[in-house]
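Lipid kinase, pasting as requested.
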Amino acid sequence: MSRRKAMLIYNGNAGQKNIEKTLGMAVPILSQTIDELIIKPTKREDGAFHFCRHIGEDIDRLFILGGDGTVHDCINGISQLDEKPEIGILPGGTCNDFSRALEIPQNIEKAAEALVNGKTVSVDVLKTEDHYCLNFWGIGFITEASSGIKQTEKAVLGRISYFTSALRTISNLKPFPVKLSIDGEDLTDEAVMVLVLNGRFIGTNRIPLPAASIHDGKADVLICRNTNLAALKELFAMDDPEPESFKGELSYYQGKTIKVEPAEQMDADTDGEIRTRAPASIEVLNGHLRMLTPADREKS
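Structure tokens follow.
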């Protein structure tokens, strides 16, 4: 009988007292279903990426304890491998958006229980050039709001810091011309934000897009034109709107390959990290990763 081996990666720069408490809750539960658990704290900014890029083929499961940034770094390391372990996310950050799409409990102890007693599902990944993202790729307002977050503010206010940054950003928003190609269909528009989504949450807010799924091999493309973001506020208030609901200041598309070409080069936000730029070509890698979810999660 083969031994089951797992690795747990967490942010080594987090507060020592908090992380000891969190590990104390999670590790005994995770250890119930495996023979060996290797615990790896990150020591540098790209530590999670390097741990995952060079993870051994004998690792059956990778547990990621952290927020969206740590998950993003791990996904970029894992996605390049031929043999990939199953991945379980233990939400330990500010927003934990993709863990919400997987319906993982936001309490660490309950999350660990859900993962070890859960099931494995295949999940899509977005790829742009040599970079991967799990939740979203975006330009315009989303990037400016992410760039404007003050770390001192984030430490004190948590997810509210995203809203305070957004409020500072709105007054400076200007529409930009952009060309898009979605599965070969070309369109030209003016926008304050273009979002290419795999997940369904941003900043803990659920985006109620029709037919959105993390398993279908398609990305959801959202174009917002209004500088006061009234249309986006209306979208968040909708309850599973139909495609015809998207008109006026908001457009919605789906596609497997998306090209986004603003008139000028722009920074792009991937899962809350500003690491790439537009123009960009985005491809959906269908079922690229195997991830752990609660056993009672409905496929969506």
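Note for the archive: The first strand starts at residue 5 and ends at 10.
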